Amino acid sequence: MDRESARNWFTHTSDLVTEHIDEPEGRVRLFYLSTMADAKVVYSELIPKLREICLEESEIAVIAQHLGVSSSNRVFDDGEAIERLLSGHIVIQVEESSYGLAFPSDGTVGRNIQAPEIETVVLGPQIAFVEELNVNICIIRKYMSTPRLFHERLSVGKTIPMNVSMLYLSGTADEENVNTVRQRINDLELDTSLDSTILAQHIADNEKSLFPTLQQTERPDRAIHGLRQGQIAILVEGSPFALLGPTTLLQFFQSPDDYYLRWSLATFNRLMRTFAMILSLILTPIYVAALTYHYEMVPADLLLSLAQSRSRVPFPPLWEALLMELIIELLREAGARLPTKVGQTIGIVGGIVIGQAIVQAGFTSNILIIIVALGALSSFIAPSYMIGSTIRVVRFPMIFLAGVLGALGIVVGFSFLASHLLRQTSLGRPYMYPIYPVRFSDWKDGFIRAPLSSLSERLKFFNPKRISRFDRDRAKEKKDIDE
């Protein structure tokens, strides 16, 4: 690549820098983007070495030998040179040479590794993924020091290509799952900025479904646990979230913290999350259905309190409930978009002030505020942000059906929901596993979390090549030091 071709490619780019090393001959040229390459490496290390080398010899092979540049960093055409420049490399070109050299130098600014912000950690490593793809792969390799961890680099997009990495544990991950992910990524034709959340929508089995079929996590320990189970991890350059697949609905209610706790506490937490999600779906619809069509379901003492509470409310229970749910969602969205400290204040103070004002104005009853608040809190218990948002959206049609058809509407809503979930797949695998198809042997790490010594086999859902993780009998042996 000469100076003219470089300027043609970067016509409107002012950060392209060209340096002539062997003045006045000018046979050895150096190209780099000042916004991508590290200036200290260029002017403190590379240029002084090049000038010293060029005093004796200016052949490209000699320069590569003295700089310690491997053959993999050779550049043979303009397209490859442009790609290296955009990734932060320094391209060295010698006139009349058949190839050039790409010297690594990354001067881009990245975020330091911090604790997870969305998936908070109670117990376990206080570390989260960042926007640097190589750093994220390094984090995973640090905790999985095995040559069986395979890493494939893929490229998505033709106009603006983005780097995507696929990781899986060879000998454990199913080849069919690996081929499915590889094919879906290679078949993509995108011309937009890519993030793992966008990629998940494109390669999902059913992108029109409200329910996510690929796990998104910022926690390396969750990704590593998935890799050990036989899942496939997908990392995208510029995204601090990894994708895991295939996955089941139950896994969205599980947290890596479950494995750091005693099995009894972990089981209680999982059952509580499942109960909270069901409660979030049916609590407000039951209120609407009972007050609209089924007064006989409410005990007499409670019915009297409900009548007194709603005596000033001019709206029917359906519109009253929809109004309160909408206000809760507005407060939640406002709190998420505002700065952290202000958002917390708006969420707490706004909820109290608006709730009290609405009751005093007669727009709603005290009991409905309690019910809506319980439903909202229940949806926030989900460890996954995506599944929590899905539950909050599904709640609205459930409330509408309850207001129109009563208890029959709730039954119809759950029937449609169950039918939809049973038809969903994740990379071709059943989404409702182990509920459907029924596999009681995998329930020990589903609704509950059995003792670790009992989890000697991987979930059959992933179709792993190696079912056994360790010897169960030996894991249960307790030996004293003198035995």
Can I get a quick summary?
Helix content is 46%, strand content 11%. The chain has 483 residues and is α+β, with helices and mostly antiparallel strands. The chain has 3 domains: 3-103, no CATH class; 133-247, no CATH class; 261-430, no CATH class.
Order of helices and strands: HEEHHEHEEHEEHHEHEEHHHHHHHEEH
* Amount of beta strand: 5-15%
How many domains would you count in the coordinates?
A: 3
Q: Largest beta sheet: what is the strand line-up? A: 1-2-4-5-3
Query: How is the biggest beta sheet arranged?
Result: 5 strands, antiparallel
The structural class is: alpha+beta
C-alpha-based Rg, rounded: 29 Å
Which percent bin holds the helix content?
A: 40-55%
Mean pLDDT: 82
Low-confidence stretches: none
Q: Tell me the number of helical segments per DSSP (H or I, 4 or more residues long).
A: 16
| Strands, total number | 12
How far from one another are the termini?
72 Å
The geometry reads as: elongated
Protein name: Spore germination protein
Family: Belongs to the GerABKA family.
GO biological process, one term: spore germination
Organism: Brevibacillus brevis (strain 47 / JCM 6285 / NBRC 100599)
